[in-house]
Amino acid sequence: MISTRQVRKLRSEYYKTGSISKAAMRADVNFRTAKKYMETTKMPSDLQKPRNYRTRQDPFRKIWPEVEDWLQVAPELDAKTLFDFFMEQNPGEFLEGQLRTFQRRVSDYRFLKGPGKEVFFVQEHRPGEAFQLDFCCANELGITICGTPFPHLLCHVVLPYSNWEFASDCQSESMLAIRRGLQGAVRKLGHVADWTQTDNSTAATHRPGQDEEIPALEDGRKPRRPFNPEYEELVRHLGMKPRTIAIAKSEQNGDVEALNGVLKRRLKQHLLLRGSRDFLKLEEYRRWRDRVLDKANGYRSEKVRKEIKVMRPLRVHLLPEYKEVTARVLSGSTISVMRNIYSVPSRLIHSNVTVRIYEEHMAVYYKGHHQLTTGRLLGRSNVSINYRHIIDSFVRKPGAFANYRYRDQMYPTMAFKRAYDRLCDRMITRKADQEYLRILKLAADTMESEVDVALQLLMETGEKFDHEDVRCLVQKDQQVVPDMPAFSVSLSDYDGLLSSNLKEAIL
Questions:
Q1: What is the pLDDT of residue 120?
Q2: Is the pLDDT assigned to residue 302 strictly greater than 90?
Q3: What is the spatial distance between Cα 16 and Cα 484, in angstroms, rounded to a whole number?
Q4: Could you say which of 28, 87, 335, 490 is the most buried, measured as most Cβ atoms within 10 Å of its Cβ?
Q5: Tell me, which fold does domain 130-208+224-313 have in CATH?
Q6: CA 20, CA 458: separation in Å to the nearest integer?
Q7: Residue range 97-123: average pLDDT?
Q8: For 377, phi and psi rounded to 5 degrees?
Q9: How far is CA 180 from CA 89, 166, 239, 287, in A?
Q10: Mean pLDDT over all residues of the chain?
C-alpha cells in the first residue's frame, strides 16, 4: 500500500522531471498507482473507505446479547468485572489477552446505545462577580521550619475571571482559617466582590445535628445546608453575599479547585530554584510564599484591573482574626476551651479569664492583662499541661503525683521519662516521686535543656542519682557575677571635651 510519504515524493519528482514514469521509479511506486495519484490532489488516507466487515471471527458473538442485557440493567458495571464474570461462566472459552478487545466492545456499545451522561456546561465568568474559597493540603511541599516539618493547609482565595489568587496557611478547615484567608485576600486587593463562594465545608455551612432537621427535596436531592451565623456575619460585614456549590459538586468550584494544583506546582518549582525547603522561621516562609503569588498575579494585571474596575472598594474595618471566650480557672489550674484542657498559672485559680483563640495559638488575659500564650490544640478531649504552672504545688504535695490524671504531660522530654523510670527502679515509689518533682522544679527554675543534658549524663554512668546530683551538674558551670563597685561618672569631663573641640573649631 502506498504511503503519504511516497505520494509526496512522487509529486515532488514529477514537478522536477515532468515525467510520471521517472517520478514513479524514484518514489518506488507502480506506474498505474502513480498515474492515479497524479490525477487527484488527495492523499491515500483521503481515498480510504471505512471498513464495515470483520477480518476475523468475533470471539464474543455467543455471549454479547447477555452482555448487552447486563449493561442495560446495570450501566455502571465495569468492563473488566463483566469479563471476569463470563470467564468464570465459560471456562476455557476466553483468554486473558482478550480483555482489551472486550473493553473496546463495551466502550463502543456505551457510546452507541448507552444512557446519556451528565453534561458540564462551560461557564462565562464575569469580572468582579465572586471570590471562590477552598482549602488544599500543602504537606507534599515538604516545608520545614528550622528543620522541623511544617504540616499545614492553605486557605486559597481566587477571582475566577482573572485567576488572581491569595493564600494563607492554617492548621484546619476552621472558621478562624476562613476569617484570616478571606480578610487577607480583601485586604490585599482593597476591593470586594458581589459574592463569596465556598463548598459545603463544616466551618461555612454545617452545624452539628442540623442535617437531620432539614427534610429532603421532592426529587430526593439533599438540600443545601444553611450558613453558620458566624460565617454569614463575616461575609456580610465585608459587603458581600455568601453562596455555596451544590453538595458533592466540586466542579462548580472548578476555578479554585484547578488552581489548587497549579499553586502547589508553582510553589514546588520555586522551592527547587531556592535550593532548600527549610526556613528559619514561619514568617520567612510566609514572605517567600507571598512573593511567589505576587509574581504570578503580576502576569494577570490586565484582567485584574478589569475586575477592580467593577468591584466595590473595601469600606469597613476588618474583624479581629480571633474568637474571644470566657473560661473559669478550675482548682487544678486548668481551663477548658473548645473541649480541650490547658494549664494556666496557679495564681489564676478560681478566676474568670478571657481567652482569644487564634488559628494557631491562644492568648489568655485577666482583666485585660496578658498572662500567657500557648499553642492551640486541634480536635477534642486533648490536653496541654505546662509543668511550670503547677510544679510548686506538686513539690509541696508529692503524694498527688502518683494518681495525677495528666501525669503523662509532666515529662517534658524522653530523658525526663527515663529518669523517672530509673528512680522508680532504685527506690520506693513515693521517694521516686519526690526526687523527680524536685528535678522538675530545678528545670522550671533554671534551664530545661541543661537539666535534660544532666539527666542523660547521669543515666549513662549507670549509678544511682537524685536531684542533688542533677543540681550539681546544672549549677557547676554557672558563672558568678563579680561584685564590683559602682562606677562614678563625672559630667565635667565631657564638658572639658566639648570646650576643647570648640576652641579647635574657632582656631
A1: 58
A2: yes
A3: 108
A4: 335
A5: Nucleotidyltransferase; domain 5 (3.30.420)
A6: 101
A7: 83
A8: -85, 140
A9: 60, 11, 16, 16
A10: 87
